[in-house]
Amino acid sequence: MPRLDMVDTSNNNGIMTKANWRSMKKYGVRAMVAKLSEGTFFTDQTAKTSIQNAVKAGLHVNGYHFARFTTVAGAKAEAQMAAHCAFNAGLGKDAVIVLDFEATNSGWSRNAAIIKAWVAEVKRMGYPKTDVYTMGSWTNSMPLNNSSRGGWIANYPSNPAGLKFYGSYNGWQWTSTHKFPGCYGGFDVSQMYSNYYYGTTTHVAKPEKAIYYRYNPKMIYARTPINRYKDIAFKHKVDNFPTGTVFAIAKVINYGKITRFQLANGYYITSNQANVNRLYYSVDGGVKRVKSVRGTHRYKDKALKHVVDWQPAGTEFDVAKIVKHGDTTRIQLANGLFISGNKKINKFVK
């Protein structure tokens, strides 16, 4: 039979105990992959404890996100969801964050665009190791193994004995029903062909303490999908807004040891800096260089009324200083000209 190198688990398996993992380890299991999230709506609450127990048992730990996106914007939103869930579950930067891509096959061109967008965003969020999981019949419909080794493929033959499918990929998931003594139910198991998933067994990152705004930044944009609520306790949800949405903040309201943002219409949103960021650079932000996102004008004055010229998308500017203008800021260049201090217009480089 193929080897039992790696097991992937989810809420369907329940919380995996240290004893469960030790039992599996006796049969050759070296690594695990825990389900972290799905779409932008589901967080697997079993992941954190299962990962912690796997580390205690001496296994390598990784995580996966089940994809529901069909657009680049959706891919980026789900990538942010996956990265936040990975961090909150305690996965370190040497863990592999896997894209489970098996819900919608839109053909090579679209699949390639949206998968690459997801991978790039997960890496931008701080997780450099990614992989793509899919079924064997989809391997020619997406970028999996085009640059060195990559891809984790599922294919369940009725008799896998003596077989070695997908040997040029990272791994082959050869069954979804394997039984381990002392463990309830059947498990997905894989035979691995590289060491890619064997990154760490020694440390589970502790989530950093959440940082909340204590002052009013006036304008913010969403780093992640954002809910609006009727009440400060966040018990009565009104609606949801996608990543990138800009909000004008009316007030910062204390709520116990944290704060909430109140909008002009009286609704509340989070002030957690992991979820929202100020729209304009701060005067003391230490910004040295920015890049135009879609192209930008340069101006003679900080009121941005007297245009000098137009600089195309991708132009980088060295920052002389950030200057305040009302509730916003401007970037003053070394030649004395000004550009907008809006981060969505001129993004941070260093």
UniProtKB/TrEMBL annotation:
Q: What biological process terms from GO does the record include?
A: carbohydrate catabolic process; cell wall macromolecule catabolic process; peptidoglycan catabolic process
Q: List each copy of the DUF5776 domain by range.
A: 212-276, 280-344
Source organism, top-level taxon: Bacteria
GO molecular function terms noted in the UniProt entry:
lysozyme activity
> One Pfam annotation, family name?
Glyco_hydro_25
Membership in a protein family: Belongs to the glycosyl hydrolase 25 family.
The protein's name = Lyzozyme M1 (1,4-beta-N-acetylmuramidase)
Q: Which organism is it from?
A: Levilactobacillus brevis
